[in-house]
What does this fold into?
Amino acid sequence: MTIREFETYFTRLYLPLGMYALRIVDNADDAEDIVENTFMKAWQIVSSGSEIENFNSYIYRCVRNECISFLRGRKELEDIDSISEICEEVIDTSFRDARIWKAIDELPEKCRVP
It folds into this structure.
């Protein structure tokens, strides 16, 4: 994978992955940190010459695992089964949430206030 390809994945997946992580850890700053760290780890693997066959599935699985580790570290993980497995529905939902988040962010400030 080239740097440009990796940047394309980053640009396309960053916000949806953030929304996915947010649903798991319930904190925007923590979710953002998890996604950033996951992309850094993925880049280390990719830049070392390792091939990742399906990057979308790989990065979602990595974010899920990082969220689980994060919650375990905080002793907030009661039941790992409560965290949904990665499937098309989960990915589609994260993209939908990202589109909604982006649309809200583009509204004038007064319109964003509930």
In short: The helical segments are 3-25, 28-47, 55-73, 88-106, 109-112.
